[in-house]
Request: fold
Amino acid sequence: MSETHIPVLRNEILDFLTPSPNRVYVDATIGLGGHSFYILKSSFPTGRLIGIDLDESALAIAEKRLHPFKDRLILIHGNFAELKSLLDAFGINKVDGVLLDLGVSSLQLDTPDRGFSFQHLGPLDMRMDVQLDTSAAQIVNESTPDELIQIFREYGEERYAKQIVHHIAKVRTETPITTTLQLAETVEQVYSKKLKHSKEYRKNSNRVKRIHPATRTFQALRIQVNGELNNLVRGLDAAISILKPGGHLCVISFHSLEDRIVKQKIRHYARTCICPPKTPVCICEHEKALNVVTRKPVLPSQSEIDANPRARSAKLRVATRV
Ligand SMILES: C[S@@+](CC[C@H](N)C(=O)[O-])C[C@H]1O[C@@H](n2cnc3c(N)ncnc32)[C@H](O)[C@@H]1O
Reply:
């Protein structure tokens, strides 16, 4: 990562978290340490930060980058779904702010060997934690067609899921699909056949910059391989449970499935009662735990998107602990 790399929505995150000395922050997706660098810098000289990531190679880079702050930093290889027990192991049970910057890091996307990108030739892997048992190739080659259709529909919202899986099933009987480009090509073949004759395609092809046909398939596989949505649900519950009153939860998501979970979780914890409508007297014993800070998600400015096109789909939601 270049020294000039600026993490997504950096200024907005710093404005909400307001990092200060003597406070404790968790960067639950530390990646290459971009946000953490600024949190540690702004909380000089005594603010502490715990950085967590599934990816050991990212942690090694973050460690180097954050070396100047090493006395105020704890790095943990782990899953934010286990946030509470990861912090317990260090005797930390309450913190002043938690940041989740979801999705893949630029390191993961730009390293062909990790298999996240349909633009680079690499093994079809996609494991954020290389200790995970199952790679994307195993899912593509070993799942039943019905299982694959469900993954592509549910996690990719892919409208041609059935046709793509049908084609994958045909291809893999001849040769297993083991590389990123093999899969991208298989999906592209379905799209070009489907869309060539469609009116919508011809109408839009000169005007609309379409996303790559394999985008949704790759997203779906990545989510499945890493259990991303389940981790997010558990990670949000854990983050809310460890925040001190007034502490901030900041979550940056990059697609609608993630954003929906974040929005619903924050809404759930911001309610005073979750009894079904028309229940005469409250019986739920639900306790309001959050105040919503951002009614609508905060989006990157056009100048940020121009400087970093990967920021274009980012959405930031923030809430504070009651
Ligand atoms: C978008 S990157 C974070 C970039 C970071 N904010 C920065 O500025 O460098 C997301 C990171 O979250 C990590 N990650 C994703 N899911 C995780 C999980 N459940 N637990 C821990 N880390 C996770 C990924 O490995 C990746 O390094």
Notes: Residues 7, 29, 31-35, 52-55, 58, 79-81, 101, 103-105, 128, 231 surround S-adenosylmethionine (CB under 6 Å). The mean pLDDT is 94. The chain has two domains: 10-107+229-321, 118-227.
